[in-house]
Amino acid sequence: MPDQPVPVPVERLRLDMPPAHTDPAEERAYRKERLAGALRLFARLGYEDGVAGHVTARDPEYDDCYWVNPFGRAFAPLGPEDLLLVDGDGRVLRGERRVNQLAFAVHAAVHRARPDAVAVVRAQAPYGRALAALGELLAPVTHEACAFYEDHALLDEYAGAEDGARIARALGPYKALVLRNHGLLTVGGSVDAAAWWFVAAERAAQVQLIARAAGKPVLIDHHSAVATRERFGGDLAAWVSYQPLWQTVADMASTS
């Protein structure tokens, strides 16, 4: 008779965690790699519309400087070498292409207002835009949507790209913002977290709109929604949740 299987000790089981960097150059390379990967992922998910949509990552060494995708370039082929380093006034410091200065000004304002935010995402996704057209917040209609319960805001007035400071104030301390008549904006303590919050908010908006079209959604009660957010609404949970998506774009890059 074969030996009965026994549990593997927990300490021997692998669990991927965010890396810690002590060298700014290594941290910069890591953030650029993740930023380029997030853009390629967003291309696959359809979060791209013409020249609109940006993901920015704070440089780990240079104050008020951020890495961003270049103006007029499709997301799908972008690699770390294609990214631009841009200062808070919109001047390109490294790179060979132009930056969308109007759109970037919103990112710079959010980064300045939120020094805890490594990354800011503002992309074009259909369900977030539809929810924004209704001027509504994400409702706690699913377990996943509870990650945003009382941790996102609505800017309930039309704001253009020149209104970066107003957008940053509306975001406040939260992880996400619904920009009325525009769409979604998310931030995170890592590129992975900010990207995951955008994907998660877009999916939550999709379910909310489908449920409303089918009938009257039943909301999760306040106590349960808060408890769920406290457990699954942090940036570490977002980073972990993002890893399967990251693996898909990383695997594609390695085989191309």
TrEMBL record:
Transmembrane spans: none
Protein name: Class II aldolase/adducin family protein
Family: Belongs to the aldolase class II family.
Cross-referenced Gene3D superfamilies: Class II aldolase/adducin N-terminal domain
InterPro entries: Aldolase-II_Adducin_sf, Aldolase_II/adducin_N, Aldolase_II/adducin_N_sf
NCBIfam families, per the entry: PRK06208.1 (NF004855)
PANTHER family: ADDUCIN, PROTEIN HU-LI TAI SHAO
Organism: Streptomyces virginiae
Domain Class II aldolase/adducin N-terminal stretches: 33-209
